[in-house]
Amino acid sequence: xxxxxxxxxxxxxxxxxxxxxxxxxxxxxxxxxxxxxxxxxxxxxxxxxxxxxxxxxxxxxxxxxxxxxxxxxxxxxxxxxxxxxxxxxxxxxxxxxxxxxxxxxxxxxxxxxxxxxxxxxxxxxxxxxxxxxxxxxxxxxxxxxxxxxxxxx
Length: 153
What we know:
By secondary structure, this protein is α+β, with helices and mostly antiparallel strands. The chain has one domain (about 5-150): Electron Transport, Fmn-binding Protein, Chain A (Pnp Oxidase, Chain A, Roll). The protein has helices spanning about 15-20, 60-65, 105-120, 125-135, and strands at about 25-30, 35-45, 45, 50-55, 70-80, 85-100, 140-150. It has a 7-stranded antiparallel sheet with strand order 2-1-5-6-7-4-3. α3 (about 105-120) packs antiparallel against α4 (about 125-135). The two termini are about 25 Å apart. This is Pyridoxamine 5'-phosphate oxidase-related protein. InterPro entries: Pyridox_Oxase-rel, Split_barrel_FMN-bd. Pfam families: Pyridox_ox_2. It comes from Pelosinus fermentans JBW45.
């Protein structure tokens, strides 16, 4: 992997993982068999140092993963445009890894994790939604192979 050009903006691995854990949305990028990239913004969670997200039962993401399991996942955290300086303060994380479709208890644990992260006050209701929804979605685990984070403040 190429190193970060502005090394003074690079954060440690632990800081990048923390920024990743604090994010709500990320863009999952895959490649199709014709060589075109496809990026889709998705909610996600972190479990056991892996990124988990859900998507439909069929579509570009799953088609692309069946062709090539290598993915890139990008999260932009805090941003602040500084108009007079023609720049911005920001936090961002880029992950490279492999995407794998998961099933069974791993899938259910991810869906419960989504409820805990985004709707903790409705956890019991969320369990009922999971029960109705679990067979209508796919869950993907991204095993992190390389992560970089940058911060300008």
